[in-house]
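User: Before I run my own analysis I want an independent prediction to cross-check against. Here's the chain; please return only the structure tokens and, at the end, one sentence I can use as a sanity check.
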Amino acid sequence: MFLNTSKQWQGEFEKLRQIVLDSDIALTEDFKWMHPCYTLNGKNVVLIHGFKAYCALLFHKGALLKDPMDILVQQTQNVQAARQIRFTSLEQILTLEPILKTYLQAAAAVEKAGLKVAFKTTAEFDMPDEFQARLDRDPALKSAFEALTPGRQRSYLIYFSSAKLTETRVARIEKCLPLIFDELGLDDKNR
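Assistant: Structure tokens:
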């Protein structure tokens, strides 16, 4: 089990799990993305995970939660829906326990209400000039890219745009062409 095999944050993970399971919400404990994940009617609500510098509760639709304590963190600028509450000690978790239960209740209410996060469209993401020029020159590439799911399109655009140098953007584009033509996303190449 994840909690028994983790080398770091074991006490923190156990307490977070207890808080989630002891909440008055009928969450189902599952294991997704190699982490304990808690669902409501088959929908992801909260996940427990850890990093080198902190462990966290990740609320899948955290962007929809009110945050009166200003404790929800957006991991990166590209994360649209999820928000974390981060911890660096068991004492922090114990201090915040009543507040965490309130946030869990709010997350469950969001899911019960069927609320959805309004994601940015692919067109709202930066299109690197180098990739746009390549699409303009190659109709087959343009068709292949447009045939990808919106999520795959966005991940390529984020990946290409994150390179600071033109040479790096061009190299990334060239490297990804076979994946795009094979209708694969960036994360599919390892499967």
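Sanity check: The mean pLDDT is 92.
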